[in-house]
């Protein structure tokens, strides 16, 4: 007889009705969010290029195969468990690693020098290879005729990968929170009332919520309910992407609210009156690289220049159609 933690790892799931309904609810939430995010992302992103855009798309669309693969596997829509495991593996890579790349591509919102965050990208690539490939091999082996040989290793490695990924996202979130607090601490003249200060506080809130979701994911992972953990993970990652979208909406709202009537070819927004202690300039160049924009700012004193807000901000302008 299979252990409780083994239920759903090999073959389908034979669970109680409440457990099945919980699984269906999580998968439904995830798939609904994929549909909604797909419409939103193509409505907001007018220049569809750049790391932020593509990582967001890949992470969003990766949720679908991750969910569909488990539907095929858990409910035995097909008895080809190797096929469903392969679909889940593809979804895992796109969904999980894509989410980390989304967070990385937004690091430049609070850190000017890209070289300071390059190691984060290397960490993501390293973990993707070290975790993704062995996990896929173990998952495929667990659902093959040689299942007893692979099952113990898979159960251990599955826990290892989720801990490492959560630590990875924790590191990125801590960087956000630390750098954001530093930026807020240096902006003493605006009394925290400007839109940029509100945006920074929103960033802190977003990253705290992400940390809370990761903690709940770890708790479910070690509860011994594989069928709940996997479906809950799919829902959690779709929710985290929707939270990420709230940051994008806040950025777009700031630009829309204060858009000036300058040259339509190069929209420039001066945020100087809002920040008082700094001269901030947000420029959206539609002839630039994709949908990315830059915020360039100079501090009033040279020794604090490195702490001024935003060397490079990646965001999407929703003001122009097409």
TrEMBL record:
Question: Which part of the chain is the DUF7703 domain?
Answer: 13-255
What InterPro entries does this protein map onto? Answer: DUF7703
Residues passing through the membrane, by range: 20-45, 52-76, 82-107, 119-140, 160-178, 199-220
The reply to whether Transmembrane figures as a keyword in the UniProt entry is yes
Nucleus among keywords = no
Keywords assigned: Membrane, Transmembrane, Transmembrane helix
Its domain of life reads Eukaryota
State what protein this is by name: DUF7703 domain-containing protein
């Amino acid at each position: 007889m299979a252990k409780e933690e083994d239920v759903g790892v090999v073959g389908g799931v034979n669970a109680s009705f409440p457990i099945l309904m919980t699984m269906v609810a999580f998968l439904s939430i995830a798939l609904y969010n994929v549909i909604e995010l797909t419409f939103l992302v193509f409505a907001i992103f007018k220049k569809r290029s750049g790391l932020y855009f593509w990582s967001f798309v890949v992470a969003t669309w990766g949720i679908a195969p991750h969910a569909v693969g488990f539907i095929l596997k858990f409910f035995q829509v097909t008895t080809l468990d190797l096929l469903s495991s392969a679909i889940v593996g593809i979804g895992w890579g796109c969904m999980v690693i894509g989410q980390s790349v989304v967070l990385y591509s937004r690091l430049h919102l609070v850190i000017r020098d890209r070289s300071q965050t390059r190691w984060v990208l290397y960490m993501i690539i390293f973990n993707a290879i070290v975790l993704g490939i062995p996990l896929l091999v173990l998952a495929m082996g667990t659902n093959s005729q040689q299942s007893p040989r692979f099952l113990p290793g898979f159960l251990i490695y599955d826990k290892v990968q989720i801990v490492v990924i959560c630590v990875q996202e924790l590191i990125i979130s801590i960087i956000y929170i630390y750098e954001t607090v530093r930026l807020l601490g240096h902006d003493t003249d605006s009394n925290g009332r400007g839109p940029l200060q509100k945006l920074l506080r929103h960033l802190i809130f977003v990253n705290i919520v992400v940390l809370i979701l990761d903690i709940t994911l770890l708790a479910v992972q070690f509860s011994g309910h594989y069928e709940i953990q996997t479906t809950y993970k799919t829902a959690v990652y779709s929710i985290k992407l929707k939270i990420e979208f709230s940051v994008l909406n806040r950025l777009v709202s700031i630009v829309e609210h204060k858009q000036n009537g300058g040259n339509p070819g190069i929209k420039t927004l001066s945020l100087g009156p809002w920040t008082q202690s700094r001269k901030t300039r947000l420029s959206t160049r539609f002839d630039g690289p994709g949908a990315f924009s830059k915020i360039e700012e100079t501090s009033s004193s040279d020794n604090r220049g490195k702490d001024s807000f935003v060397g490079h901000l990646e965001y999407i302008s929703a003001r122009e159609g097409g």
